[in-house]
């Protein structure tokens, strides 16, 4: 199986782009997150919808106990967010720089341990190199 056949072409987020642009591209491509590139065009992280909303919509003191809420949160007083302010915020504020990734030359079977682990590696490129070498 070739990884290129499974990939979904998307835009790449860059410094200065807004959360509104990010969300539009996620909806357009039907994906939960997008890669983030530095000034040299290298992919250095990702932006995810889940992480954005976790950071801006759920108070930090509730994160660890969110699983106790279940599907019903009507009784919880979550602060109102200013949607326009959020949509105008730069995407780099929500950058996740520690993420598993593979290049088009990697075989899916060699990259699968990255996605099956419950935590992201501390150095994804070194873990990928180790995985690809085995």
**What's the story with the biggest beta sheet?**
3 strands, mixed
Low-confidence stretches: 117-134
What is the radius of gyration?
17 Å
CATH class: Alpha Beta
CATH fold name: CBS-domain
Biased composition (Low complexity): 116-134
InterPro entries: CBS_dom_sf (IPR046342)
Protein name: CBS domain-containing protein
Region (Disordered): 105-134
Task: Write a brief structural summary.
The chain has 134 residues and is an alpha+beta fold. 37% of the residues lie in helices and 10% in strands. It has a single domain, classed as CBS-domain, CATH 3.10.580.10.
Q: What this model shows, in words?
A:
The longest helix has 11 residues, at 19-29. It is globular and about 50 Å long. Helix 5 crosses helix 6. It has a single domain, classed as CBS-domain (Roll). A 3-stranded mixed sheet has the order 1-2-3. It contains 6 helices and 3 strands. The protein starts with 12 loop residues before the first strand and ends with a helix. By secondary structure, the protein is an alpha+beta fold. Residues 105-134 are annotated as: Disordered. It comes from Candidatus Reidiella endopervernicosa.
List the helices and strands and how they pair.
Layout: E1 13-14, H1 19-29, E2 33-37, E3 43-48, H2 49-57, H3 60-63, H4 83-88, H5 108-116, H6 124-133
Parallel strand pairs: 1-2
Antiparallel strand pairs: 2-3
Protein name: CBS domain-containing protein
InterPro entries: CBS_dom_sf
Biased composition (Low complexity): 116-134
